[in-house]
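User: Here's a structure from my thesis project, written as C-alpha cells. My advisor, Dr. K., wants to see whether a designed sequence matches the one we expressed. Can you design one independently, without my sequence as a hint?
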C-alpha cells in the first residue's frame, strides 16, 4: 500500500514538474536561493538557440553565439581543467591570439575575464563565438605586440574536453610546485596590469599548491617521505615569493592588516628577507605606526644599505618622526604653560594679600599712635 501510494505520488509529480521552470525547480526542490533575473543565472539556466547572440551580462559587454552545439549537460564547473582551441580577432579581422590546445583551470582567471565567464556556459565539443568588450578583455593597456588599447575582440572557441581537477594531496611535490608557480606568474601578470584583486585571487590559489598539506593521506605520506631536503627548500622559497607578492597586492587594495599577516608569514621563516622587511615597514607607515616602521626599515637598510627605495622611505619616516616628536613637545609645553600660568596667578594673589595685610598693619599702627598721643595731651591738661 505504501509503495503504491509512493508510485502514485511520483506519477502525480511528473506532469507538475514538467510545467515548472528550471529556476523554480532549483529554488523549490533543491532549496537554492537564486535570482532568476540575474543575467549570469539566466545565461546558465536557459538553453541558447544556435546562431543567436546571448547577452551574458545583460549590458552588451560580453556576448556569446553557438556555432556548433556540444553534448548536453557537459558544462564545466569551477576548477575543472578545460582544453580549448581559441582564435581571437580584432574587429578588422586581424588575428591577435591563436591556441590549438590551451589548457586552463576554469575560474582561476588564467585567461581574460570575458573568456573565463563565457567558457563556463559552453558544453563539451561546442564551438562558439564570444565577443568581449575591452573592459573584460585587455582594457586600456592592450597587450603587446598586437592588441591595441580599448580593443573589442571576437573569439572563436571550441571546448575540446573537460577534466575534473586532481586532488592536491595526490600530486607530487614537483607537480604542486609547477602548478603553484604557474598561478603565481599569472598573479604577477594581473598585478602589472593594476588588477590587484585578480592578482590576490591567483596568489591565494598558488598557495594552496605550495603550502604543505595539513592532513596527509597515506599516499601523500609516501610521496613526501621520498622528497629531498633540496626539493622542500625550493618549495619553501617559492611559497615565500607568493606571500611577498600577495602582500604587495593587498597593500594596493589597502588591506593592511591582511598584508601584515602575509609579510609575517615570510619573516617567520626568513627573518632577513629584505623585501618582506621593506613591505612591513611600508605597511606600518600606512597604519600610522611611524616609530615601528622606522625600526623595521633600519633592519632592511642594514642588510641592503645601498637600496634607494629603503633609504627614501627611511628619510620620509625620519622627517615624520621628527614632526611627531615636535608635536608631542608642543603638547607638553601647552600643558606645562597652563600650570605656570596658574602658578603665576596664585603667586600674584598671595603677593596682593600680603600687601593688603601690611597696609592694614601700618594703618592700625598709625591709628594706635594717634590715639595714645591724644590721650597724653588730655591727661597733661587735666593734671595742669
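Assistant: Designed independently from the structure alone:
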Amino acid at each position: 500500500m505504501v509503495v503504491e501510494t509512493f508510485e502514485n505520488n511520483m506519477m502525480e509529480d511528473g506532469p507538475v514538474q514538467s510545467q515548472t521552470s528550471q529556476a523554480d525547480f532549483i529554488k523549490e526542490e533543491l532549496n537554492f536561493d537564486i535570482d532568476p533575473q540575474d543575467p549570469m543565472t539566466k545565461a546558465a539556466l536557459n538553453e541558447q538557440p544556435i546562431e543567436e547572440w546571448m547577452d551574458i551580462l545583460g549590458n552588451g559587454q560580453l556576448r556569446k553565439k553557438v556555432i556548433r552545439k556540444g553534448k548536453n549537460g557537459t558544462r564545466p564547473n569551477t576548477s575543472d581543467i578545460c582544453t580549448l582551441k581559441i582564435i581571437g580577432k580584432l574587429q578588422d579581422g586581424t588575428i591577435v591570439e591563436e591556441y590549438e590546445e590551451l589548457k586552463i583551470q576554469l575560474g582561476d582567471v588564467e585567461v581574460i575575464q570575458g573568456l573565463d565567464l563565457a567558457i563556463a556556459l559552453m558544453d563539451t565539443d561546442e564551438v562558439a563565438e564570444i565577443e568581449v568588450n575591452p573592459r573584460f578583455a585587455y582594457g586600456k593597456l592592450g597587450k603587446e605586440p598586437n592588441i591595441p588599447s580599448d580593443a573589442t575582440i571576437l573569439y572563436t572557441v571550441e571546448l575540446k574536453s573537460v577534466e575534473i581537477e586532481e586532488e592536491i594531496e595526490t600530486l607530487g611535490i614537483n607537480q604542486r610546485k609547477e602548478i603553484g608557480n604557474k598561478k603565481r606568474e599569472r598573479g604577477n601578470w594581473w598585478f602589472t596590469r593594476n588588477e590587484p584583486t585578480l592578482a590576490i585571487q591567483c596568489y591565494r590559489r598558488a598557495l594552496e599548491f605550495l603550502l604543505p598539506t595539513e592532513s596527509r593521506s597515506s599516499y601523500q605520506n609516501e610521496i613526501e617521505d621520498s622528497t629531498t631536503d633540496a626539493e622542500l627548500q625550493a618549495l619553501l622559497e617559492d611559497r615565500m615569493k607568493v606571500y611577498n607578492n600577495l602582500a604587495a597586492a593587498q597593500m594596493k587594495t589597502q588591506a593592511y592588516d591582511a598584508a601584515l599577516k602575509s609579510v609575517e608569514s615570510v619573516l617567520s621563516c626568513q627573518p632577513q628577507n629584505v623585501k618582506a622587511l621593506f613591505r612591513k615597514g611600508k605597511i606600518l607607515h600606512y597604519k600610522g605606526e611611524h616609530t615601528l616602521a622606522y625600526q623595521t626599515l633600519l633592519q632592511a637598510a642594514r642588510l641592503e644599505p645601498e637600496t634607494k627605495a629603503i633609504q627614501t622611505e627611511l628619510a620620509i619616516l625620519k622627517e615624520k618622526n621628527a614632526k611627531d616628536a615636535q608635536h608631542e613637545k608642543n603638547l607638553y609645553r601647552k600643558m606645562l604653560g597652563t600650570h605656570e600660568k596658574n602658578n603665576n596667578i596664585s603667586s600674584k594673589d598671595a603677593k596682593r594679600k600680603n600687601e593688603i595685610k601690611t597696609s592694614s598693619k601700618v594703618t592700625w599702627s598709625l591709628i594706635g599712635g594717634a590715639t595714645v598721643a591724644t590721650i597724653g595731651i588730655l591727661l597733661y591738661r587735666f593734671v595742669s
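When you compare it with your expressed construct, this may help: The chain has twelve helices and six strands.
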